[in-house]
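R.M. (postdoc): so does anyone remember the format we settled on? I'll just put the structure tokens first.
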């Protein structure tokens, strides 16, 4: 577990190692420049908590790549080599599996994102949901996600890209998900608009929409 509590920029021309579950905490912004490659060692994952932001803005000529350390540039029929990118926001969700929630969208509803296991002191870093459908978690553009979706336990997995309670102020296009254990992109509630996405060779749904999106 590694918390990012202050603004951090990952600079172009550099390959970064992602080891363990990394959380960008509320108030912090993670900026990823075009062309950056993030390689996960030991099944790492990256989560953007409610109140935090990510600006991962690649370009067509210099996309941002999230992959595993075993990716040699040659396609392989495999997945589960690392976790994923999870973005958590403050928008409405319809979820009544959590005690105290109701089955219709409510500002008091919240849930814990599956596949995330922060320590007890930071359990709120995996929560999503709230009452702001205009919530802005940043920008994810020209990003590719490969060989992810690590399974934590039965029915407890990280999809290719997980989106929980993210608002329409967030910009996401275009993105690619290739070779994921579970869904390519799973969206829990919120009001995020997506366009120009490619999902290929995943183990479950390509695009899964839940909890009143």
């Amino acid at each position: 577990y590694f918390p990012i509590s202050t603004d951090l920029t990952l600079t172009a021309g550099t390959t970064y190692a992602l080891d363990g579950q990394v959380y960008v905490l509320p108030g912090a912004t993670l900026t990823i420049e075009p062309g950056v490659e993030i390689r996960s060692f030991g099944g790492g994952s990256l989560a953007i908590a409610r109140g935090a932001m990510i600006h991962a803005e690649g370009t067509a000529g210099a996309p941002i790549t999230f992959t595993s350390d075993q990716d040699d540039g040659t396609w392989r029929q495999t997945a589960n080599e690392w976790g994923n990118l999870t973005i958590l926001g403050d928008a409405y969700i319809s979820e009544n599996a959590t005690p105290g929630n109701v089955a219709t969208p409510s500002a008091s509803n919240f849930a814990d994102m599956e596949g995330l296991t922060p320590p007890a002191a930071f359990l709120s870093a995996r929560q999503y949901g709230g009452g702001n459908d205009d919530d802005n978690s940043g920008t994810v553009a020209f990003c590719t996600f490969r060989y992810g979706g690590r399974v934590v336990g039965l029915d407890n997995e990280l999809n290719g890209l997980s989106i929980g309670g993210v608002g329409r102020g967030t910009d996401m296009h275009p993105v690619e998900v290739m070779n994921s254990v579970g869904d390519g992109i799973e969206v829990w509630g919120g009001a995020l608009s997506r366009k120009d996405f490619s999902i290929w060779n995943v183990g479950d749904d390509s695009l899964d929409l839940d909890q009143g999106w």
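R.M.: ...and that's the designed sequence above, right after the tokens. Also worth knowing: The longest strand covers residues 37-48. The chain has a mean pLDDT of 94.
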